[in-house]
Write a structure and sequence with these properties.
Strand order of the largest sheet: 1-3-6-5
Strand content: 25-35%
Largest sheet: 4 strands, antiparallel
Order of helices and strands: EEEEEEEEEEEEHEEE
Length: about 210
C-alpha cells in the first residue's frame, strides 16, 4: 500500500479562547474613554476580529485595528475603539461578546459571554483651566488672581501641591512658571475631588494698574 505525502500544519488545541481582562483606555487623553483593551487567555487571530461582535454599553461605532496603541498582531490582546466623547474617563461600561468570527490561532471560536463590567484603567485628564482676575483688576498678574483646574473625574486630591512641585505637576509651555519672583505661590486648594484652585502670588513682582 502506498500513501501520498501530506503537508501542512496540524494542532491538537481544541480549547477555545476566553476573555481575561476588559480595561478602559483614553487613547488621546482628553478625559473621555475611547476604547476597551481586551486580553484573552491565549493568542488570537486578528484577521478574524469583527468589531461589531463586541457590544460596549453606551458606546457607538465600535471599530478594530491590529495596530492601535502599537499593538502586535495575533497576540493575546486587542483594542476595540469607539466614538470619543460617549463615555467619561471614570466610566466602566459592560462588554458583551456575541459569538461570531473571532478565533484563536488554531481556529477555535470565542464563545458568547457577558455583559461583564470593564475595569477602570483610564486616568483623570484636565478638561479646563480657567484664569480669573477676581476683584483686583490689573495689567498682568495680581495678588488675588486664581486659576481653577477641573479634571474629568474625581482624583485622590493630591497634597501638598506647593512651590516645590507645581511646575512639575502642571508644566506650562514656553518656559513659563507658576512661581512668583520669590519662587513661591499663593496656595493650591481642592474645592472638591476634581476641582483645584491655585491662587497666584506676585511677591517681589512689579505690576501696573489697568
Amino acid at each position: 500500500v502506498t500513501f501520498s505525502a501530506i503537508s501542512g500544519t496540524f494542532s491538537d488545541d481544541l480549547v477555545a479562547p476566553t476573555i481575561s481582562l476588559r480595561e478602559t483606555v483614553d487613547i488621546d487623553g482628553d478625559g473621555s474613554i475611547d476604547g476597551l483593551h481586551i486580553t484573552f487567555s491565549e493568542n488570537v487571530d486578528d484577521s478574524t476580529v469583527t468589531a461589531t461582535d463586541f457590544g460596549i454599553a453606551g458606546a457607538s461605532n465600535e471599530s478594530f485595528s491590529s495596530t492601535t496603541q502599537s499593538d502586535t498582531a495575533d497576540d493575546n490582546d486587542i483594542y476595540i475603539t469607539f466614538d470619543d466623547g460617549d463615555l467619561a474617563s471614570d466610566a466602566v461600561p459592560t462588554l458583551t461578546y456575541t459569538k461570531g468570527t473571532l478565533t484563536d490561532l488554531p481556529g477555535n471560536f470565542l464563545a458568547s459571554n457577558g455583559p461583564v463590567a470593564s475595569t477602570d484603567k483610564a486616568g483623570p485628564a484636565i478638561i479646563s483651566a480657567v484664569a480669573s482676575d477676581e476683584t483686583g483688576i490689573y495689567v498682568g498678574i495680581d495678588g488675588d488672581d486664581t486659576v481653577t483646574i477641573t479634571f474629568s473625574e474625581n482624583t485622590n486630591q493630591l497634597t501638598p501641591i506647593n512651590a516645590g512641585n507645581i511646575n512639575t505637576l502642571f508644566a506650562l509651555d514656553n518656559s513659563h512658571s507658576w512661581l512668583d519672583g520669590a519662587s513661591g505661590i499663593g496656595s493650591a486648594t481642592w474645592a472638591d475631588a476634581k476641582t483645584l484652585t491655585i491662587a497666584l502670588s506676585v511677591y517681589n513682582e512689579p505690576r501696573n494698574s489697568d
